[in-house]
């Protein structure tokens, strides 16, 4: 689902949707995503930061979450998603990967 670019919409989705995990940019239209992190954490939904901000921008309570720095390689994101969602290491198979990942 998504993308969601506004904090309020992201918080609503985090509260109401059945989610397996989330990919979060720290900056949601000029506002930090950390209220979304609080909701996801309370619901035990894993998340990963995909951002141009350094690790230091993440509050202490969320520094255990994985962080992928922009620019990134699509395979880096795929590997992180596989780990976050406990998917097989070869997911998806190379021939199933699409080069349409924007970064």
Automatic annotation (TrEMBL):
Highest taxon above the source species: Bacteria
UniProtKB keywords: Phosphoprotein
Residues annotated as domain Response regulatory: 1-85
4-aspartylphosphate carried by residues: 25
InterPro entries: CheY-like_superfamily, Sig_transdc_resp-reg_receiver
Gene3D superfamilies referenced in this protein's UniProt entry, alphabetically: 3.40.50.2300
A Gene Ontology BP annotation from the UniProt entry: phosphorelay signal transduction system
Protein name: Response regulatory domain-containing protein
Organism: Reyranella soli
Source lineage: Bacteria, Pseudomonadati, Pseudomonadota, Alphaproteobacteria, Hyphomicrobiales
């Amino acid at each position: 689902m998504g993308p969601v670019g506004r904090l309020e919409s992201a918080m609503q989705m985090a509260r109401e949707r059945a989610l397996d995990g989330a990919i979060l940019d720290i900056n949601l239209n000029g506002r930090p995503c950390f209220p979304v992190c609080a909701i996801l954490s309370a619901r035990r939904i894993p998340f990963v930061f995909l951002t141009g901000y350094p690790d230091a921008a993440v509050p202490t309570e969320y520094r255990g979450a994985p962080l992928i720095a922009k620019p990134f390689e699509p395979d880096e994101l795929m590997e992180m998603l596989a780990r976050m969602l406990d998917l097989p290491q070869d997911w998806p198979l190379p021939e199933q990967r699409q080069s349409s990942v924007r970064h």
